[in-house]
Amino acid sequence: MLSAASKTFFHFLAGNQGLQRLASRYGMASPTGFARRFIAGETVEEAIEAARGLEGRGLSQTLDYLGESADTLEEADNATGMYGQILDRIVESGIGRNISLKLTQLGLDVSREAALANLRRILEPGRTHGFFVRIDMENSPYTDATFEIFQALWADGFTNLGVVLQSALFRTTQDLPRVVGLGARVRLVKGAYKEPAEIAYQRKADVDAAYVMQMQYLLSNGTFPALATHDVEIIDAAKAFVAKEGIGKERFEFQMLYGVRRDLQAALVKEGYGVRVYVPFGRQWFPYFMRRLGERPANVAFVLKSLASEK
Ligand code: FDA
Fold it and tell me: By C-alpha distance, which of 176, 175, 87, 93 is closest to 132?
């Protein structure tokens, strides 16, 4: 994790329209475009190809069609329609049926009811075709609405739906047993967004300590938890905990981001752990990409190096 100030800086850049236009022109333009390390491509075909490559190496995957907030109901409707097409293409391709999505993309900023209805439109064919659908967790203004929509759909029998909990937020201590009590699948993350000190830990050590406690709770009580982190110390702590408690490797999975710690992903597969890679794709890749840069300064050097070698 970066310092809070650097996180703020990269989040500021993520919202910069001029920079976004410039990056969009070059980042994915060639097969060596600097964003390709973290983004599978701009089309679903490219994402499916990346997913096939991962599955060929013993990893599983979840596809994420990138796009953040829809400003109008029409945009939200388009994104929902796009998800329908993506599901069809995934089924045709024969890759694993697992997607991740964001509720603001489905219209949460415009209307909660519309976002719920749009998610239902994705879940219905998803359930028929055996998809698992994960709602990514966005920043704290959306936490309550995300849980409410999740719970309404869960109560309607959509148990092919899972959520994400962020260890950085103080409230996660209370949210965790509630979601686990339902029997829903949780992905545990540290939290990618800059949050105020009144509601979230600011120091890495505090976030990590919360993560380890919540991870142990999930491993003992949760339904197939997903431990989404690249943090080797935490991964080692998970391995030690499951060995001590006699929890089988088939009862949980690790998750990592596309292009991040590929060495670690492969090593865990070799040791017999399940590892799912989050595969983002789509034309609106810039904010996601900036969040990844914000997590690790070395990524900025990586981008600059690949820009230099493009010349
Ligand atoms: P931490 O940031 O402490 O990093 C530990 C080590 O991992 C670093 O020292 C470095 O070696 C490596 N590393 C981490 N990030 C890297 C990067 N970008 N590039 C290269 N190396 C890196 N967040 C959220 O708020 N809502 C969500 O829905 C999700 N969803 C999600 C799904 C999946 C599959 C993953 C892996 C992560 C998320 N996240 C997320 C992001 C998460 O909250 C967090 O910001 C990142 O995973 C980085 O935190 P780490 O746990 O890896 O630890």
Answer: 87
Q: Is 295 in the pocket of ligand 1 (CB under 6 A)?
A: yes
Mean pLDDT in residue range 214-242: 98
Query: What is the C-alpha to C-alpha distance for residues 45 and 50, in angstroms, rounded to an integer?
Result: 9
Higher pLDDT, 28 or 80: 80
Secondary structure tally for the chain: helices H, strands E: 12, 8
In a domain, 210, yes or no: yes
CB-ligand 1 contact for 169 (6 Å cutoff): no
Closest CA to 283 of 108, 71, 44, 78: 44
> Comparing 13-22, 144-153, 263-272, which segment has the lowest mean pLDDT?
13-22
Q: Is 114 within the bounds of a domain?
A: yes
Looking at the 3D structure of the chain, how many domains does it have?
1
* CATH number reported for the structural domain that contains residue 186 in this entry: 3.20.20.220
Which structural domain, as residue segments, surrounds residue 65? 40-284
Given a cut of 50, whether residue 311 has pLDDT beyond it is no
Give the model confidence (pLDDT) of 133-192 as tens digits: 999 999 999 999 999 999 999 999 999 999 999 999 999 999 999 999 999 999 999 999
Residue 306 lies in a domain: no
Catalytic-residue membership of 187: yes
Give the C-alpha separation, 187 to 23, whole Å. 30
Residue 69 forms part of a structural domain: yes
Q: Is 176 in the pocket of ligand 1 (CB under 6 A)?
A: no
- Quick count: other Cβ atoms within 10 Å of Cβ 177? 11
